Amino acid sequence: MSIWKNQQIKELIQIFEQYSHEGYEHNQLLLSYNPLMTIALACEILTQIAKNKKKVSKASNKVKKDLLSLGQMYSSKIEDEDFYEELITDVDFRDRSLLKIITDQEFEPLMDENDPKAENIMMSIYQGKETTRCDGNIKGFSSIYHVITSKPKKLGANDKSYFKFLTNHFEANYDFDYSYQYRYRAHSINFIFMKEFVCALAILIIFQYVSYKYLNLFNIDSMSSLSDTEKKLKITENLETYKNYNLLAFLFSFSLVAQFLMRLLFNSCTKTKKMPVDIWIIIDTITGLLYITSIFVISNLDADTFLDTKKKDYVDYFVLLVLLASWIRFFSFFLIIRDISKLLLTLVAMVTDTLAFIVIIS
Fold it and tell me: Each residue of 172-228: pLDDT tens digit?
């Protein structure tokens, strides 16, 4: 895209612009076999042009916006949900589904959240099409659950089966298809989220407490009445005290790094689909490494470093960075909660827009 000539790019943008300005009823772009795919690929090209050619970025973004509006109008007029699903799951020449293109390129108008068809297909993908065949009753297929929750039964005179005695006469219920247990999957996801949230809160509290102890133990202003020799002795004692507080924090920090190492080990050994290294595990790993680094750095400093004002400031900034990373990791969990994420993203956008004004006023 970057080696294209400007004249060729302008001609291509003009072609897209002609389609975007044509009326809906007579728009030739909608005559393609999959208008949504055609619009998505055209918008993807316009996005690349805007990134690589600053001179035409404004025109590219305007045409892209008009094409997305055209696609939104076309999508809203589709009444057959099966036909809509065929369009969304269709793949391009690079074997990418339209849904993946929309997600990666953030073409939200093509799958508007207010469109019930888009919401239904997303719920169908998440839940699975076979969820209606699952009653969600774990008693039907779990012998352990049956043994734990059921009262013991006596064996009959002619019943000498050890297996029946061991399972308390358990019989599997084959009236339902348990190939996809959506209810338990959703429950498991909720449980994992709550576990991660509680652990993130615990780590934040521990990091905050250790940082607070750091400020108290190495507050040079509070030692102003002492001589230099006494200050060094006091700082040396406080370093030993500070190391004791770091043991629990080190274990939590190492657990964040360990899950990343375990995932790499799993991916190196598995012969099936590998587990992706997503943004969440990257944030966890960075947070863990930052705190482990701060533990070893501060623990190996001498008293002279703390008495040097400039060096002490650098150490304080690093501790502040570690604490900031912990807070960011904790608040990132709220982005998963739909209602809170909208409020949080709106707040971030407002602060970002007013940042220049705040800097000027301050």
Answer: 665 554 444 555 666 667 777 888 888 888 888 888 888 888 888 888 877 778 887
Residues with Cβ within 8 Å of 91's Cβ and at least 6 positions away in sequence, in order, are 97, 98
Do 213 and 245 form a contact (C-beta atoms < 8 A)? yes
Cα gap 314→300, rounded to integer Å: 15
- Residue 67 contacts residue 110 (beta carbons within 8 Å): no
Assign residue 106 a region (left: φ > 0; alpha: ψ between -120 and 50; beta: otherwise): left
Q: What is the CA radius of gyration of the chain?
A: 30
Beta bridge partner(s), residue 91: 97
Average pLDDT, stretch 152-168?
67
Distance, in Å, from the CA atom of 304 to the CA atom of 15, rounded to the nearest integer, reads 70
Phi, psi for 4 (deg, rounded to 5):
-70, 150
**Per-residue pLDDT at 10 exceeds 80:** yes
For residue 9, what are its two tokens?
């790019």
- 203 class by beta-carbon count within 10 Å (0-12 exposed, 13-18 middle, 19+ buried): buried
Name the residue with higher pLDDT: 136 or 106: 106
Instruction: Write down the pTM of the prediction.
Output: 0.49
Q: Which of 37-51, 311-325, 328-342 has the lowest mean pLDDT?
A: 328-342
Crossing angle of helices 98-105 and 81-89, in 10° steps, is 70
